[in-house]
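REQUEST FORM: STRUCTURE PREDICTION
Request ID: SP-0412
Submitted by: Lab K.M.
Chain count: 1
Length (residues): 266
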Amino acid sequence: MLTTLALYLLLGALAGVVAGLFGIGGGLLIVPVLIVTFELQGIPAAVLTHMAVATSLATIVVTSISSVRAHHRRGAVRWELFRPLGVGILLGALLGVNTAVQLPGPVLQLTIGIFVLLVAVQMALNLKPSAGETQPSKPELGAAGAGIGWASAIFGIGGGTLTVPYLNWRRVGIQQAVATSAACGLPIALMGAGTNIWLGWGEKQLPAWSLGYVYLPAFAGIVLASYLTAPIGARLAHSLPQAKLKRIFALFLLAVSLRFIVGNLW
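STATUS: Completed
RESULT:
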């Protein structure tokens, strides 16, 4: 158990640095590494991928709170955009978890692999949508939130890789888009983690120390370490070459995505 906890602390430390360095949620790193770790622990294949997604969402509940507070103090969160987005996100995340639990483990891994591949391509090529012509309406924000919440709950992420480009496309400045996206990560994580706990309650294949699909030792280690290291990543972001680092991280994501895609197709 001590070795396992040390591994989770290391994963949390890396996730915190990545989140602070690139401005993306640690879920892109946490979910794939947890899947591999759970495999090595001998956790049944039928539940390990769902556990990785659920545990990632649970960690985002904690880490997003401090992020939202920091952005709010700077007055960067567009709360008038968050409210309709948040309503859609809650409904979408509820649907997303129910979608994920219906998928067999290998199919869910394949889906995650394809998504990570798309993110890797976007980061490597620095693809960004051009600004739209008008500000979004409340119905549009609600619909967009539902889509973002649904996808984020399936992939175990806070939604920043989807929310920021969408808001930027709808003529929201990048700093406000990042801050508002951070606020959106909280309802995604709350609904996603809560629903995973509810749906996983009583699942017989789950290991000890599980709360529904959330694996508590991984949750504790990741939260503790990422809380301490996220500020380090944020400071490094101002002193290291972002473009080169993004391409390196994109190569890592590419390797991760191919591992899941190839491994579940052949």
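NOTES: The two ends are 33 Å apart (CA to CA).
Reviewed by: T.R.
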